[in-house]
Amino acid sequence: MGEELAIVVKDLYKTFKLPHEQHSGLKQAILSIFKGGRGYETQKVLNDINFEIHKGEFFGIVGRNGSGKSTLLKLLAGVYTPDKGLIQLNGSLTPFIELGVGFNPELTGRENVFMNGALLGFDNKEMETMYDDIVEFAELEKFMDQKLKNYSSGMQVRLAFSIAIRAKSDILLLDEVLAVGDAIFQKKCYEYFKQLKKEKKTVVFVSHDTSALQEYCDRGVLLENGKLLKIDKIDAIIDEYIDILNTTESNDVAAKDEAGVHHIGTGGIKITNADILNGRNGLLTEEDETLEIEVEHYAKESIDDPIYGVTIYDSSGQRIFVANNMWSQKKVPTVTSGEKIVVSWSVPNIFNSGSYSVTPAVAASSGAVVLDQVENIMSFKVRKRQISNAYTNLDYKMKVRSK
Predict the structure, then answer these.
(1) Coil, strand, or helix at residue 345?
(2) Of 94, 92, 90, 112, which is closest to residue 103 (Cα–Cα)?
(3) Which of 134, 221, 210 is nearest to 386 (CA)?
(4) Over the stretch 194-229, which tens digit does the pLDDT of each residue have?
């Protein structure tokens, strides 16, 4: 292995044995063997994984849940041993996974700081020098004399992370679980990532957050069902990852359509159809490309002051955009029985790379009566965006017309 390489992974395989049944004792386990029953099945978690990471590279590991990301990270950390294959590390390593495992819940926060510092190789004097910075970073000044068992899980991870970043290592393994706590602490975590990048540290970063991956990573690998699908620049990795998500999502939508669309409301006005009008198959790729949504309705009864709304969610179910004509004080025509109405929405592309779903709704009586709402009636995808926030009543455009 050349000196320019920090990590080499070659012909890597990992399997786990999954028990079929639980035995309450040795007798039952022995009887199961004599009955000829097989007590477990073999699950292939990683299958022939090969890649190299250069020194000073910020490297992403990307994939859906169950693809093998966490197992690969634990193999690199030495938590697991491979069934077959080779992992070579050129330099010292600090794994930021399963933070706080070495904590003692019966000791105070302060005592755990010094104990964990000793595990990292620091003496008592060095930890005294670092102590105030560790506590300030973790935002736990008021809690350090309390026993750790009284801490929330988030507080424990924050403390463990604040201690771990003091380690002077050549290679760092970062799991997405690090972005814990409130927005201020998350910002600190990502500022630390920026510092690592500036210092040309070798970093392996596991995350579902495509914007964070794009911001920090140079290259990455894409895993799917334990296999390495692609190793490339991070933008190409994210593009293919989003395609996988969308394929899965399309299959889910097809299955849902077979079961029928679920409507919520009195049915005075019914949502009959919805569509994304722009982008190739609902794909937005330009920052200034507006999302064009069209929702069709059929009125079963006359409504004086209908309220039309739309909500957009990301793949984790977080609300990203919500708007309706009552909040924005947009006048819409009265609806008569038997009328077909089309509501068009033009929403600025404020979305991160990823998949999104659209939930339209229509209500009456100042929103007190829901006439119809269809959750996740359609989806769209976005690539190469970096902004992340929830928006309400952004400067969107809305049109209502009879069909």
Answers:
(1) strand
(2) 112
(3) 210
(4) 888 889 999 999 887 777 788 889 999 999 999 999
